[in-house]
Specification:
Structural class: alpha/beta
Helix content: 40-55%
Number of helices: 13
Strand content: 5-15%
Number of strands: 12
Order of helices and strands: HHHHEHEHEHHEEEHEEEHHEEHEH
Distance between the termini: 166 Å
Length: 433
């Protein structure tokens, strides 16, 4: 049987078919490449790829998931740790910034800046209804300042308020009348800061709350031997710790007789509420004093504002930045000006306004009722001679105007507590010297 022989024409046709197939395959490949490039721009095997998320065999799934989960968990733990550290650092920075804000000294526009930070902005209301801010915010209590004192105050203070008096052995007799009257008036929240061992023992033996400070050479030298004015000046340094601990203090000298609970008669709307050395409404609460200078002719009369000073031996002070600044200012000046009188410095710092070269204290203040918180000039010059005023029962009587303090204190007790109507009569209005 003879075989078929392929001619040149058949060979050419076969080659054409092969070329066509190759071209067709290339076209299909390019087309598919374009389609996949468009649909999967980041590649087929990325984490978000549908193919990557497709189910494979069981073994493949186990190995892939296990590796990926382990790595993912490690990454998340690392992120959490990092974020926690950053959060702790941010909290520390925030705390530091708040502390700096609280302790920042008052400078230009400080009141406005403080209000913008601490207060909310308001629109002014109708005429006659607008009232400005009267009370500064209290400081954050810091028990680390004096843990021992903090523990004592926690036990005796009521609503974070306490009467405080400083005393050394030189005023023992007056101190005994002082704490006896407090007990008689039923006042539980009071504390004696003993400036020597004798007073500490005296208080303990009489059931009087007492606190003796840790040794301090700068204070102890004055505290143990100093006179009335020297000891009085120490209170501005000692009171600071009470305020830092977050307590409001009713500072009291020991030449005071208590007849009622003073905390029932406070307004608590100011940084400082103080009794006055004034002897009537004008001198205690202020008046327009006209100064006459005839040589000025038409302009001979100049109007001035006058007020008798606050008594630095009896005042209520709240734990605010302004109050602490007041104590710092007074204590600082007394240390620099040893011959200065603490009451004069106290009033100058409290009342002098800001002026070129001087930044005044931005503290709110209130004058206490002079017939409730009575000084001895009011009592012996006015009240004892007025039948109506004699019927009033003051909250306290401060024998500040007279050097014969102890007998007058005892006479006050006889008159107001024991009802002896002529107990005040033997004493002159003033003093013999």
């Amino acid at each position: 049987m003879a075989g078929r022989r392929d001619g040149p024409l058949m060979k050419d046709k076969d080659k054409d078919k092969v070329r066509s197939r190759i071209v067709f395959a290339i076209v299909i490949g390019v087309t598919l490449g374009c389609v996949f490039a468009f649909l999967y721009p980041h590649g087929l095997f990325t984490a978000d790829s549908p193919i990557q998320n497709r189910r494979f065999g069981k073994s493949d799934l186990k190995v892939g998931s296990s590796c990926e989960s382990s790595e993912r968990i490690s990454m998340l733990k690392s992120d959490i740790t990092s974020l926690s550290e950053k959060n702790a650092e941010l909290n520390k920075q925030l705390k530091d910034l708040r502390e700096k804000l609280r302790l920042a000294e008052q400078g230009k526009d400080q009141a406005q800046k403080q209000f913008m930070v601490l207060g909310e902005k308001y629109k002014a209301g109708p005429f006659g209804t607008v009232k400005g801010l009267r009370t500064n915010p209290t400081v954050v209590p810091d028990e680390s300042v004096n843990p021992r004192l903090a523990k004592i105050l926690e036990e005796i203070a009521i609503q974070k308020e306490v009467i405080v008096a400083l005393a050394n052995s030189n005023v023992q007799s007056m101190l005994e009348v002082w704490f006896t009257s407090i007990k008689k008036a039923g006042i539980p929240n009071y504390l004696v800061v003993a400036l020597d061992d004798h007073i500490e023992n005296l208080c303990k033996s009489n059931g009087v709350p007492v606190y003796k400070r840790d040794p301090d050479q700068g204070i102890d030298s004055i505290a143990k031997t100093g006179g009335n004015h020297a000891v009085s000046g120490l209170k501005f340094r000692i009171l600071r710790e009470f305020l830092q601990l977050g307590y409001s203090v009713l500072l009291s000298d020991v030449d005071i007789v208590y007849l009622q609970n003073p905390f029932d008669y406070l307004s608590r709307d100011s940084d400082v509420e103080s009794m006055s050395d004034g002897h009537n409404n004008m001198t205690a609460y202020g008046y327009n004093d006209v100064f006459d200078e005839p040589a000025m002719g038409w302009a001979r009369y100049a109007h001035t504002m006058r007020i008798w000073v606050y008594n630095s031996g009896f005042f209520y002070i709240r734990p605010t930045l302004a109050s602490i600044e007041l104590l710092d200012r007074v204590a600082g000046r007394l240390s620099r000006e040893p011959k200065s009188w603490d009451q004069a410095v106290f009033n100058e710092e409290l009342f002098y306004p800001s002026h070129p070269g001087y930044d005044g204290l931005h503290a709110a203040k209130r004058t206490l009722d002079i017939y409730l918180f009575m000084n001895s000039k009011v009592l012996f010059k006015t009240v004892r001679k007025d039948a109506r005023l004699k019927k009033l029962k003051p909250v306290i009587v401060h024998v500040n105007y007279h050097p014969d303090k102890l007998p007058r204190m005892k006479a006050v007790v006889e008159f107001y507590v024991n009802g002896k109507q002529d107990a005040l009569e033997p004493f002159p209005e003033g003093s013999d010297w």
